[in-house]
Amino acid sequence: MHNYHFEEHHLLLRDQVRKMVEKHVAPIASEIDENNRFPAELVEIFGDMGLLQLWVPQEYGGPGGDLTSVCLVKEEIAKVSESAALIAANNSIGLILPILNFGTEEQKRHYLGLSAKGRTITAVAMTESGTGSDVSSMKTRAVKDGSSWVLNGSKIYITFGSVAHFILVFARTSEGKGANGISAFLVDTKSKGFSFGKEDRKMGIRGVPNVPIFFDNVRVPEENMIGPEGQAFKTCMRILDLNRPTVGATAVGLAQGAIDHATAYARERQQFGRPIAEFQAIQFMLADMQMQTEAARCMLYDCSRMADRQEWDGFSAKASMVKCFASDVAMKVTTDAVQIFGGAGYMRDYPVERYMRDAKINQIFEGTNQIQRLVIARHMLRH
């Protein structure tokens, strides 16, 4: 992979993660998917390397990584397993980014310090049965009662909801037009009245538990509100802007992993007395797959450098471009990898069908790719 003007610490981190993946992730990647097993052992391994807490600033006990660092980590791990890559970046959107950008100093010292220990799992709860892209229809409510807020309602498709220690919950605290009146709370999953349901049966990212969660008069201390009351939609959008490039990083990793497998298979697979890699049709497919992936990678690290330099003008649109383009590329590339494998690619004996199943979610979560195109177009039409 081209070095993209990475700094020395980025290259060192990438090499360390690459070695760790080969030793700890690659041997269990297929088994995680086959058995739909949450690999709890990786939490400790990732935490010890500083990956779970990568974005925590040094002043709060963390490594002080930047967006480029997070993207490099996710890309390297996703080359072997998207499920594992999601675990590595778990705390970014559920805890670190919201606290770092909108938390009080007291919240930062407590929760970022806790995250810096590398053992905390978090989740984000926004989606409801009637609330996907349309957050204005949110039904979960939080009512003030003394020094606490009382939550009632439910959420669906909550990634890591059954294993999380804390969940960032979005709830309506007042009636308002559109997304106004929605607030964010950090909820301890040990709270009385919190529960989760049966794990969802997913097409991909198996081993990463997704569950519905329920709030039955769950009391949340007022100091656990993140950001201003009623303004959580703005909080969410800012967090998503920063996290969407990491989805692109996962997609780039998936695509590259699929290309590597397809290229190796094309060299080995014999038809008509020679390797299929010698056929122009296969060469054209491989070339297109690599070109598209490299274009996505260039876009990804251009975007991450913008954030690292705090160049926010146009960043939201660029983040949407990265997420949308890279995930579309991953879907196309992984599908083509299966095609190169032919009938073997459809079998679970080979990993490319898993890559194809995993790729799809990146076009859906963190805002569908249709929503990303709206964000991009609106930015274009405003300027």
TrEMBL record:
Catalytic activity as recorded in UniProt: 3-sulfinopropanoyl-CoA + H2O = propanoyl-CoA + sulfite + H(+)
Residues in Acyl-CoA dehydrogenase/oxidase C-terminal domain copies: 233-381
Pfam families attached to this UniProt entry: Acyl-CoA_dh_1, Acyl-CoA_dh_M, Acyl-CoA_dh_N
Domain of life where this protein originates: Bacteria
InterPro entries on file: Acyl-CoA_DH_CS (IPR006089), Acyl-CoA_Oxase/DH_mid-dom (IPR006091), Acyl-CoA_Oxase/DH_mid-dom_sf (IPR046373), AcylCo_DH-like_C (IPR036250), AcylCo_DH/oxidase_C (IPR009075), AcylCoA_DH/ox_N (IPR013786), AcylCoA_DH/ox_N_sf (IPR037069), AcylCoA_DH/oxidase_NM_dom_sf (IPR009100)
Acyl-CoA dehydrogenase/oxidase N-terminal domain sequence ranges: 8-118
Species this chain originates from: Enhydrobacter aerosaccus
UniProt GO molecular function: acyl-CoA dehydrogenase activity; flavin adenine dinucleotide binding
Keywords noted in UniProt: FAD, Flavoprotein, Oxidoreductase
Gene3D superfamilies, alphabetized: Acyl-CoA dehydrogenase/oxidase, N-terminal domain (1.10.540.10), Butyryl-CoA Dehydrogenase, subunit A, domain 2 (2.40.110.10), Butyryl-CoA Dehydrogenase, subunit A, domain 3 (1.20.140.10)
Keyword Oxidoreductase carried by entry: yes
PANTHER family: ACYL-COA DEHYDROGENASE, ISOVALERYL-COA DEHYDROGENASE, MITOCHONDRIAL-RELATED
Entry similarity comment: Belongs to the acyl-CoA dehydrogenase family.
Domain spans labelled Acyl-CoA oxidase/dehydrogenase middle: 123-218
Cofactor(s) of this protein: FAD
EC number of the protein: 1.3.8.10, 3.13.1.4
The protein's name in its UniProt record: 3-sulfinopropanoyl-CoA desulfinase
